[in-house]
Amino acid sequence: MSSKYSLPSAPLLLLVTDRTRYGDRALEDIFMPAIAGGVNMIELREPDMSARDLLGEAERLRHLALGGVPLIIYDRVDVAVAAAADGVHISVDSLPISAAKQAGRGVLVAKTVSSVADAVAAEQSGADFLIVEPVFFSHYAQGRSPLGPTVVRRIKAKVRVPLLAGGGITAGNAHQVIAAGADGVSVISEIVDADDPRGAARALHDAMREAWPTRPLLREALAG
Questions:
Q1: Nearest-CA neighbor of 177 among 140, 109, 131, 145?
Q2: Which has more pLDDT, 192 or 92?
Q3: Is residue 165 within 8 Å of 152, Cβ to Cβ?
Q4: Do 183 and 209 contact (CB within 8 A), yes or no?
Q5: Long-range contacts: 57-61, Cβ < 8 Å, 24+?
Q6: 12-223 belongs to which CATH class?
Q7: What's the alpha-carbon Rg for the chain, to the nearest Å?
Q8: What pLDDT is recorded for position 143?
Q9: Phi, psi dihedrals of residue 164, rounded to the nearest 5°
Q10: Which end of the chain is more exposed for a tag (fewer CB within 10 A), N or C?
Q11: Degrees, nearest 5: CA angle 74-145-122
Q12: Residue 78: which H helix or E strand, with range?
């Protein structure tokens, strides 16, 4: 089943939720400024929430995401459909991609990958975009070792669908994954923990833009 939704123009800056890090701030205090700063995708990722609460949170984000910013739901195709979200991000233990696309009624389907083999299989199964993680050290990685930008380069050489890099991404290292061929980044802490979410998003966006001419396909085109 083909997707009825589409991704924004690259570079892609995906901001993932984590309500345990908001402190005394409301969801709107972080995500509205972040969108103004350059975030062009949002992912609702609250694995301990009930389906009912997750739907409520998705509807809140849905209102924030008006204006063309796609909303992706982590791991829950049913909630993605109920919330009229744009996509679902399935993990290693989630539904198969084909089942997610069937159940999702045309939503975008993203898949977490950590190797070339994972990525090729996901693309062949119909994934609309891929997220390789953890590229750098991240406490969200649950003990998994950082893969490094080289894995991003290897994967990008074998797949055509958009590829985001996640895990420990900062404004200081985003240029490394863009130079390796990533079409964007997926972040939590770099923006959610920032005193100025808009400024943090802008710094990430600018870092990717500055690194854009170093992407492998552009280098090859210029060399040719």
A1: 131
A2: 192
A3: yes
A4: no
A5: 57/17, 57/19, 57/27, 58/82, 58/83, 58/85, 59/83, 60/27, 61/17, 61/27, 61/31
A6: alpha beta
A7: 16
A8: 76
A9: -105, 145
A10: C
A11: 45
A12: helix 77-82
Q: Which CA distances in Å does 189 have to 20, 108, 136, 168?
A: 11, 24, 13, 8
HSE-CB of 49 using CA atoms within 13 angstroms:
20
Give yes or no for a contact between 81 and 59, defined as CB atoms under 8 angstroms apart: no
Q: Determine contact, residues 62/85, Cβ cutoff 8 Å.
A: yes
**CA atoms of 5 and 133, how far apart (whole Å):** 24
As to burial, measured by CB atoms within 10 angstroms (0-12 exposed, 13-18 middle, 19+ buried), residue 201 is buried
pLDDT in tens, 111-131: 999 999 999 999 999 999 999
In the chain, where are the structural domains located? Answer: 12-223
Map tokens 């990717």 to a residue: 208
Closest CA to 99 of 107, 84, 162: 107
**Considering the entire predicted model, what is its pTM?**
0.94
- Largest distance between two CA atoms of the chain: 54
For residue 95, what are the CA distances in angstroms to 51, 134, 215?
A: 16, 21, 33
